[in-house]
Amino acid sequence: MGRMGESKHLKRHVSPRFWPIHRKEKIWAVKPSPGPHPRERCIPLIIVIRDMLGIVKNAREAKLILAEGKVSVDGKVRRDAGFPVGFMDVVEIAGFEKAYRALPHPKRFLTFLEVDGNEKAFKLCRIENKTTVRGGHIQLNLHDGRNLLVKVSDPSKPEEDVYKTGDTVKLDLKSSEITGHYKFGEGAYVVVTGGKNVGVHGVVASVERPNPLAQTIVKIRSPAGAEYNTAARYVMVVGEGKPEIKLPEV
Question: DSSP for 76-102?
Fold first, then answer.
């Protein structure tokens, strides 16, 4: 009988190119565990704390602090070395009094920027889809795998349904409650999370769709005045007119 399912191992030479590891130094790499982010858009937690943050020197030390419960992602302790860390996740190391947010970068695709005490308490999540569940309430499907239930008093009133696909919600990491809502459209401050312009951020100048069969194109004007075009599926709103979080310089 043949093997069923995917391999449990991953060789370094076929790992995603944006992982900051040496392809020819060793044979094997840590395979991301099933989780909130897909393999091609995440980095295993052990690589984050060892190769990107420099908290430890080797895999043995990394697994030790993970086993001791000193590493948390989005406020929850994670002990799995392969836990997938992706866009907007907040990584905190106990004892270092520092927290880092995963953000898109034009050269490294994914980078970690140190955030202060105020920023590490919340997270921005893009609404990928939404559905109506029993009772007429709204369920929001977010980019990090979360599903949030928004209860409405009267489902027959569309004005209560203020959330749309492509918008961003601000979540309190302790309570998982929505504390802010940023709409996608002209004037919104966005960051590009994919494509050739990944890492670019600025204000949305226009949103166009040439025809019903074509994808929506977003024109972004950066703080330096440069203009970029990208697909709407790569755009994530991070504020209204200005960013609500610290972003890396482009």
Answer: EE---TT-EE-TT-EEEETTTTEEEEE
pLDDT exceeding 70 applies to what percent of the chain?
96
3-state helix vs strand vs coil in the chain, percent to 5: 15, 35, 50
Residue of higher predicted confidence among 3 and 218? 218
What are phi and psi for residue 160, nearest 5 degrees? -80, -20
* H-run or E-run covering 172: strand 168-172
Q: What one-character-per-residue DSSP string does 87-141 give?
A: TT-EEEETTTTEEEEEEEETTTEEEEEEE-TTGGGEEEEEEEEEEE-TTS-EEEE
CA 87 to chain centre: 2
How far apart are the C-alpha atoms of 16 and 138, rounded to whole Å? 36
Which of these, 105, 135, 121, 133, lies nearest to 199 by C-alpha position? Answer: 105
Q: Mind listing the pLDDT tens digit for each residue in 59-114?
A: 999 999 999 999 999 999 999 999 999 999 999 999 888 899 999 999 889 999 99
* CA–centroid distance for 194 within its chain: 11
Domains of the chain in start order, with CATH, are 10-115 (3.10.290.10), 124-181 (2.40.50.740), 188-240 (2.30.30.30)
Q: Is the Cβ–Cβ distance between 65 and 48 less than 8 Å?
A: no
